[in-house]
Amino acid sequence: MASFYETLVAESVLEMDQSVLDSMRTKIEDELKKLDDRIADAEENLGESEVREAHLAKSLFYIQIGDKEKALEQLKVTESKTVAVGQKMDLVFYTLQLGFFYMDFDLISKSIDKAKSLFEEGGDWERKNRLKVYEGLYCMSTRNFKKAASLFLDSISTFTTYELFPYDTFIFYTVLTSIISLDRVSLKQKVVDAPEILTVIGKIPYLSEFLNSLYDCQYKSFFSAFAGLTEQIKLDRYLYPHFRYYMREVRTVVYSQFLESYKSVTIEAMAKAFGVTVEFIDVELSRFIAAGKLHCKIDKVAGVLETNRPDAKNALYQATIKQGDFLLNRIQKLSRVIDL
After folding, report:
1. What end-to-end distance do the CA atoms of the chain give, in Å?
2. What is the pLDDT of residue 154?
3. Nearest 5 degrees, angle CA 155-CA 159-CA 163?
4. What radius of gyration do the chain's Cα atoms show?
5. What distance in Å separates the CA atoms of residue 53 and residue 57, rounded to the nearest whole number?
6. How sure is the predictor about 98, in pLDDT bands with cuts at 50, 70 and 90?
7. Which region among 224-233, 289-298, 313-322 has the lowest average model confidence (pLDDT)?
8. Which of 47, 54, 264, 266 lies at a C-alpha separation of 20 to 30 Å from 61?
9. What pLDDT, on a 0 to 100 scale, did the predictor assign at position 97?
10. Are the beta carbons of 126 and 92 closer than 8 angstroms?
11. Interval 287-315 mean pLDDT
């Protein structure tokens, strides 16, 4: 992986060892010569299918050594030799793998769009299901957890995307995204009671306790499991950039669920339920209330939390009035321009 090695050296992750780099380049040149000879032989003596296979082998070699630019160029050459929609889809999957390796979200987004347009021409269900996992991973990596959860849940019983990650990791992502995206009823039906998840969840440290303690309202156990999971989230290359955001969203879900049962509750009772101090809960809730994440107010003198759930109809009415005012202003500005 000479190209990737040079990238790591440029970013001061590794120190340059010229002899190592020269050795890698020599091996790459030898392998490329063999691949070019195979392409030349196929073009002279064999059919179109063999020519395509020879070009594909060269594409896969560039992917293997992490040379992104040359891999993308060679994949385009291979695509020009490809007729079948299924085989074109496989080339898109290779491009997506490159995109995820380099976390190139622009390349990933364009490749997903390309895959969807190819499916309009025709495509098998196995590849369609694989694309859902790729798109779900892209959504999760770009903080669209709700769509990621939906795509992952659709793929639970048909998962075959082992080139991205093992099934255990897939379940890990599915549970984490679902917890902050689904309501209690959907969480129970699609995640807590899902046989595919139940067979695997016990293998992943803290995950079963994390999910079930939330659903069973065992908040002290939930916080304990959550603390254990944080290290796994921090070490995950796709979730790590969103670590702080995810932490906030999970706490919003669990605090909202607790407060849903009460019109008013003492801060001390809530602190006891979560196994933390009154001071911690006071500071935590103050932040979430100020950010508009929780609908309640703190009576510091009485030491009580009072919930004030928003009126959905009233909120819709206010939004309509606001949008109506905005529309009228735009019409007035447009009429002035027309008069001029």
Report:
1. 65
2. 92
3. 125
4. 27
5. 6
6. very high
7. 313-322
8. 47
9. 92
10. no
11. 78
Q: Which pLDDT does position 44 carry in this prediction?
A: 87
pLDDT tier at 310, thresholds 50, 70, 90 = low
Half-sphere exposure of 207 (CA within 13 A, CB side): 24
Q: Is pTM beyond 0.90 here?
A: no
Tell me how far apart the alpha carbons of residues 101 and 57 are, in angstroms, rounded to a whole number. 19
- Do the Cβ atoms of 117 and 110 come closer than 8 Å? no
Alpha carbons 204 and 175: distance in angstroms, whole number: 11
CA–CA dist 103, 92 (Å, integer)? 16
Please write the tens of the pLDDT for every residue from 160-198: 999 999 999 999 999 999 999 998 899 999 999 999 999
Query: Nearest to residue 180, comparing CAs of 218, 142, 149?
Result: 149
The residue among 339 and 248 whose pLDDT is bigger is 248
| Amino acid in position 216 | D
* Nearest to 65, CA basis, from 101, 13, 96: 101
Token pair for residue 314? 């009233």
Torsion of CA 172, 173, 176, 177, to 10 degrees: -160
CB atoms within 10 A of CB 274: 19
The contacts of residue 123 (CB under 8 Å, 6+ apart) are: 85, 86, 89
Contacts of 285 (CB under 8 A, 6+ apart): 255, 267, 294, 296, 298, 305
Euclidean distance between CA atoms 198 and 262, whole angstroms? 32
